[in-house]
Amino acid sequence: MFINPAQAQLRGHGGPVRALAVSPDGTTVVSGSFDTSAIRWSLTRNAAEQVLRFHESAVNAVVFVADGRIVTGGEDGRVAVWQPGSPMPAQVFEGHTAPVAGVAVSPDGRLVASASWDRTIRLWPLAGGTPRVLEGHQQNVNGVAFTPDGQSLVSAGYDLTLRIWPLDGGPETTLTLPTPLNSVAVARDGEIVAGGADGRVFFVGPKGDVRGELDSGQVPIISVALSPDSTLAAAAGIRGSVAIIERKARTLVRTLVGPGLPVWAAAFLPDNRTLMTGGTDRMIRRWNATTGDHIGSVPMADNSDPLAAFSGDRGAEVFRACIACHTLTPDEGNRAGPTLAGIFGRKIASLPGYNFSPALKQLDIVWTPETVSKLFEIGPMQYTPGTKMPEQTIGSAEDRAALVQFLQKTTGPR
Questions:
Q1: Are 278 and 263 in contact (CB under 8 A)?
Q2: CA 402 – CA 408 distance, rounded (Å)
Q3: Is the pLDDT of residue 354 over 80?
Q4: Stretch 157-166: mean pLDDT, rounded?
Q5: Which end of the chain, N or C, is more open, meaning fewer C-beta atoms within 10 Å of its C-beta?
Q6: pLDDT of residue 305
């Protein structure tokens, strides 16, 4: 692959890269970001061709339609369909009442599926018409994928379930796994690959039978991707590296090690070996997944890591899952979530300059060490209903205490 090292990586987003998709011909990549934009990139010119601005908050999911159109799903609950070069979406699908976390397009190009934290999946006809709503998940739906024959849809949820929905209206198959699920992909032979919050990758047959599992070392797994020939699976995680797995052998063959910041998205090029990743450092990186080599020259030191100064601090390691959305000092400002500077003693949803959910403004919570700990003990959806914050809990009391102590020393006056 002959790429100028200086241009091998794609830089342009003002926030962490949340989602990636590659066009069928491999010439274009689209990325979604916490900065509320999507960018269409030319891989032949290694440059941005268009910035897509429509969503009111983070762009969590992107996918290509075979004819070149792009579909984006946002934290604002909307799904947008874009024609290449058009400044605004050609279609907008509205109906979800919570963030859209995943989107997929059917093999025949007729349907868009969207997964949402409102616990539903919606099937939108691209030709227009009433969407079909699939209900059954008891918590956030984090990912969707169509089967290769287009006969079924697969969804992955935080409620520990993987669900297979026949599109002819038949009853769904529900499989309960040992951990919340954050991402799902379907191989060419119909095998389902799901990434779990405990770092395990699960391999499931088309009828819902568990065929195997593998500890990827990425805790939690945020994104899973399959090479076009389905030989390799990539599992990306909060710890900042990506596990490359030989799918049929269920073998971890190598780990791609980046700068230590969370990797939110991964997508293979049609050559089945080049992997694109995007993460908290706002950069889209290229890797040779068959050798493990980073393509291009990029500094790998932690000089861009806001937590580098806290090496060895357990609380900082727990907080690493939060740095994509929150800063610690007022100078850094807000990201997808408000800055945590001065959080202790502040009433919830009272920080000037940030657009909080109306539901949060009605809550009578003041942030203290006890309330912050409680937030992660029972989870944001239960403790602060109406929040846009990703659902996550910290089961260990020691880890919760370490996080609180870290915030106490880093968010106060300096």
A1: yes
A2: 10
A3: no
A4: 97
A5: C
A6: 64
Report the DSSP beta bridge partners of residue 414. Answer: none
Q: How many angstroms separate the CA atoms of 201 and 203, rounded? A: 7
Q: Does pLDDT of 297 surpass 70?
A: no
Q: What span, in angstroms and rounded, lies between the C-alpha atoms of 32 and 36? A: 8
**112 contacts 105 by C-beta, under 8 angstroms:** yes
Pull the structure tokens for residue 2.
Answer: 């002959």
pLDDT attached to residue 315: 92
Edge to edge, the sheet with strand 192-196 lists 181-186, 192-196, 200-204, 210-215
Report the residue count for the chain. 414
Cα distance from N-terminal residue to C-terminal residue, the chain: 48
DSSP E strands: which ranges in 43-85? 47-53, 59-64, 70-74, 79-82
Tokens of 127: 């030709």
Strands (DSSP E) contained in 205-348 are 210-215, 221-226, 232-237, 241-246, 251-257, 263-268, 274-279, 283-288, 293-295
- Whether the CA torsion 324, 291, 3, 50 is positive or negative: it is negative
- Residue-level pLDDT at 89: 96
What is the structure's pLDDT at 281? Answer: 85
Read off the tokens for 412.
Answer: 């106060």
Cis peptide before 220 (omega within 30 of 0): yes
Q: What is the mean pLDDT of residues 375-389?
A: 84
b/e per residue 303-337 (b: at least 16 CB within 10 A): eebbbeebeebbbbbbbbbbbbbbbbeeeeebbbb
181 contacts 197 by C-beta, under 8 angstroms: yes
Whether the Cβ atoms of residue 247 and residue 253 lie closer than 8 Å to each other: no
- Return d(Cα 206, Cα 220) in angstroms, integer: 25
Across the chain, mean pLDDT equals: 90
0.85 exceeded by the pTM?
no
In contact, 31 and 10? CB cutoff 8 Å: yes
